[in-house]
Amino acid sequence: MNLLAELKEGLSIAWDAIRANKLRSILTTLGVVIGVVTVTLMGTAIQGLNRAFVDSISFIGGDTLYVQRSAWFVNSHDDWMKMQKRKQLTLAEVNELERQFTSAVAIAPVAQSRRPVRFGKRSSDGVPVIGTTASYFQISGLMVSHGRVLSHAEAEGGRPVCVIGATVATNLFRENSPLGARVTIGQTQFEVVGVLEKKGGLFGDGGGGLDNQVIIPLPQFRSAFVSNPDFDIQVKIKQVEQIEEAREELRSVMRKVRRLGPAEDDDFSINQQDQVLEMFHRVAGTIAAIGLFVTGLSLFVGGIGIMNIMFVSVAERTREIGIRKAIGAKRRTILLQFLLEASSICLLGGLVALAIAWPITLAMKRYFPAELSPLVVTIALVVSLVTGLLSGFFPAWRAARMNPVDALRSE
Amino acid sequence: MTLIRLDKISRRYQMGNETVHALREVTVEIKRGEYVAIMGPSGSGKSTLMNLIGCLDTPSAGSYVLNGVDVSMMEDNQLAEIRNREIGFVFQTFNLLPRSDALRNVELPLIYSGMSAEERRRVALDALSHVGLADRVHHRPNELSGGQRQRVAIARALVNNPSILLADEPTGNLDSRTGAEILALFDQLWKQGHTIILVTHEEAVARQARRVLRIRDGLLASDESLAVNPETGSGLPPIIPQAQRAQ
After folding, report:
1. Which of A319, A320, A326 is facing B83, going by the closest CB pair?
2. Which chain B residues touch A323 with a CB distance below 8 Å?
3. How many CB atoms are located within 10 Å of the residue B161 CB?
4. CA–CA separation, B125 vs B129, rounded Å?
5. Quick one: pLDDT at residue B161?
6. pLDDT of residue A57
7. Are B220 and B36 in contact, with CB atoms under 8 Å apart?
8. What are phi and psi of A165, to 5 degrees?
9. By residue range, what is the domain housing residue B107?
10. Can you tell me the distance from the alpha carbon of B93 to that of B170, in angstroms, rounded to the nearest whole number?
11. So what's the pLDDT on residue A202?
């Protein structure tokens, strides 16, 4: 008896058995369905989160170094306290750095403060207002969808102009074009010359996102809001491949600018996107591991359910096994029959689970980028099949090894 | 020509600390084309003997040569193949698969022997019409009478053209008239050349055969050849009154 015919026969027997015990099959499948749904959703969520993060982070570019008072990731409270005591970065230091650090494509000082932004009766509270130079656009890669970015002259000069983020634009201006309008930031009026392209995604939406910001010339920022702000310095380097060298060079220049002696520690930090990515991957990895463990547990419980019901099925059909063996079924044939039954139940469960997970994924999509990718679908189906094979094996093995004489005698 | 040669066959079971000797050095030969009844009270060892002859079980000692092949030392899978090819079982309780129709039940041994689907169907339909059930092929066992069920079982037993038709109390669950019909069918099959071994505890049923082996306490108590009734063509006396008495 060849394997193909055996498979076909086994499948038809399995299908008969599943149909003959509809309610039981449904209840058993439920365990697998729940397991696979959670695994699928977990996989989808992790994948979506990863993609969203990488998408969002990548446009900022890996070729930018951020000189700041404190590091993005602080390991201990003591470190954090130390960083809080550091001197602010001043505009004089920015200018000095610009003069000495020549291997940069662009350097931009960035000062930030949250202010209410008003236009007519509409207003938006706590919008991050960024005072910077024209280089900021070059470094960040921010583009405008309407109007233009700040020119060098505007950025240096005293004219009160601003570029607003997409969210700010939709909040303040329903239908009218914001270009040329004068919005009130804090107490001062600024003319809108450009609207930033909508970024969307994980970092675009929401209060602190990139779509919710207003960019104004640095001199305006200092005169209207904070005269001596704590600057971040964004440095775009020439080649991403040489970011480590550039980082070292930047560090030594900064030490010179700040006149640090050889024995003194840095009193500034240089941050880069790699750190965020690395941190993110570490966190995401932990979430994934815990999540998959928990969902794996539910799948395990489902698998035990299958195993249990397969034992019942084998016990119930002892006589049938006896008949089949008497007529010439080999061990392999019986083993295959029950394995197929278990894996069919599980595979059906997997399909049902995908049918359930799909609309849930669509619903999740409204809050963050989730997608039921072919990879996740494949994993879900393979996982359910393997669950069936594993949990069906022991019962099937018991059936296959039955002594035909005893099996025939059973009621 | 010798079909079955049992040589000093013993079968022991371990029941707790006790060893039960179900069969003790039984030696029997059965030729192709014989019609043999195995008789004995319950606990005599006749079922054990039947299981051994049917290759459902292996002896603890002794040798069993079936159709020229020593099967006494074979393992599970080889025995399955032998059963599929050489033995056709007919059971007291029919032992049909309840969810499959008559055709599928009869096809089953052919599936295990690897016959193609079309040929399988043809052979199985043939076997069913041979036992007079050509118009019942798509009925499930619960839609058939006891006699019809046993006919399906006989068709299934014969479909692979086995060397032996091994029947275990084939009339035990049937009324006397249906039982007589089934025995008549056996008689007919024997005349067509099949080797039939009938296990029974009913004298009247055993009288249908041409040779009766009596088992008692695990030993072969007697081996008797029966005369042929010229009228019925089978052993004496006529079966129906006795079968009724047994009911």
Report:
1. A326
2. 95-97
3. 12
4. 6
5. 92
6. 65
7. no
8. -75, 165
9. 2-246
10. 8
11. 59
Whether the pLDDT of residue A152 is over 70: the answer is: yes
Domains: count for chain B: 1
> What pLDDT is stored for residue B104 in this prediction?
93
Check CB contact under 8 Å for A2 and B114.
yes
In the A/B pair of chains, how many CB contacts fall below 8 A? Answer: 63
| Torsion on CA atoms A123, A125, A127, A129, rounded to nearest 10 | 80
**Test mutation, B84, B156, B199, chain A, max A CBs within 10 A:** B84
Query: Quick one: which of A404, A202, A206 has its CA closest to A323?
Result: A404
Provide the pLDDT for residue A285. Answer: 85
Give A411 to chain B, closest Cα distance, Å: 11
Contact A329 B89 (CB under 8 A): no
Whole-angstrom Cα distance, residue B154 to residue A47?
61
CA angle at residue A22 from A17 to A28, to 5 degrees?
90
Q: Judge: A405–B108 Cβ closer than 8 Å, yes or no.
A: no
- Residue B239: its pLDDT value, please? 42
Query: Which residue of chain A is at minimal alpha-carbon distance from B87?
Result: A327
* Chain A interface mutation, best of B49, B56, B108, highest count of A Cβ atoms under 10 Å: B56
The pLDDT value given to residue B243 = 40
Q: Distance, in angstroms, between B166 CA and closest chain A CA?
A: 11
Q: Is A247 exposed, middle or buried (0-12, 13-18, 19+ CB in 10 A)?
A: middle
Closest chain B residue to A4, measured at CA: B114
Return the pLDDT at A298: 86
- What type of residue sits at position A280? F
What token pair was written down for B180?
């007589």
State the CATH number of the domain containing residue B26: 3.40.50.300
Q: Which residue has the higher pLDDT, A330 or A9?
A: A330
Q: Which residues in chain B touch residue A1, judged by CB atoms under 8 angstroms apart? A: 111-114
Q: What is the DSSP letter of A161?
A: E
With an 8 Å Cβ cutoff, is B59 touching chain A?
no
The pLDDT of residue B240? 42
Measured between beta carbons, the chain B residues lying within 8 angstroms of A5 are 111, 114
pTM of the model: 0.70
What are the E-state strand segments in B108-231? 164-168, 195-200, 211-216, 219-225
Which spans in A85-190 are helix H? 91-100, 135-140, 152-156, 166-172
Q: Which residues of B are less than 8 Å from A3 in CB distance? A: none
Q: Is the pLDDT of residue B245 over 70?
A: no
Coil, helix or strand at residue A158: coil
Identity of residue A246: A
Half-sphere exposure (Cβ direction) of A5: Cα atoms closer than 13 Å = 14
Phi and psi at B111, nearest 5°, equal -60, -45
pLDDT tens, position by position, B13-57: 988 899 999 999 999 999 999 999 999 988 899 989 999 999 999
Over the stretch A62-92, which tens digit does the pLDDT of each residue have? Answer: 778 888 888 888 888 888 888 888 888 888 8
Q: Write down the domain spans for chain A.
A: 3-56+278-409, 102-239
